[in-house]
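FAQ: What does the model actually see?

It sees only this:
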Amino acid sequence: MKGSYQIYLFTATLLAAMAFFIQRGCQRESSLFTVEKLPEVDWEVRSFDDALFSGDSMDWKNIQQSFQPFLQGNSQQFFWQNERENQQLNDHYTNVQNLLDKSAISEELALIAARANALLALSIPSHLYFYISGIDLQTPCLYYPGSASESSFAFVGLDNYLGAAYPGYGAIAGYQRELMRKEQLPIQFAHAVVSTINPNHFNDETLLAQMIYYGKLHMATEALCPEVNTAEILGYSTEAYAFLEDSERQVWEVFVREKLLFSTDMMIRQRLAEPAPFSKLGTAMDADVPGQVAQFIGYKMVRSFAENHPELSLNEILNIRDAQKFLREAQYKP
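And it is asked to produce this:
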């Protein structure tokens, strides 16, 4: 097992370098929301993974003093000692140390927090914590901006970004592994930031509402990560995104013809908006349509709405809860 992890380290480093140059050439939409001067971010960066897994023995006193948020769920020393001795977690930690640059990551995330403060009026957390999550697909990043009277924290499970070919991800579906790359880390961190605003559409279970929710999420992420290409923000490969760009009109026509926008069928939402290897539109091109196609159309609709309402701030758009308002006023015509 150790041999396979060592071979992976070399291969992953080579692939990461290749991906960097490929991504620089990908198409990128310009963010509609920019910040002229970013506020300073002076959060303290702490590595719980180092405190737990490095050294000859666990410094329990240091953990108690410096990593209290992690002890809220379990404050027993023997529990954390067992975690420290877990071989799988140690493998994750070793690969994190070899493959990820915490300093560069913290700088990139600080820019996101600064833009969130400027564009969304979210307070900047006082601490950024890195840790080994044991692979957490649901919440790889967490963001608690708090308030003047509350503590504020941000958390990043670094072992969720070791690359699609990482041996530790072997039991995870391929389409999910594709997003477990370090390029996705700032995007998923931005998702955690935006989720604190909860830009959802209450009491609306239509596909349209879900499309607009994801559209707002992706447009806000684009504003918080302006250097990232649009395909990466939406979780697509360059080829998949190019296919959707070329097929956008055909996909939209299916949505309209089949009256999918106002469907409240949970199965339709799952087929078209939730992560999956393909989207099931019920057409001859289904095998070529990437997953979560409704998110792509939702992003296009919300972006069109924003372009037609330059008087509205990003925060104001995120707080519009009427999905049909976007449909009416986006003037979306692919």
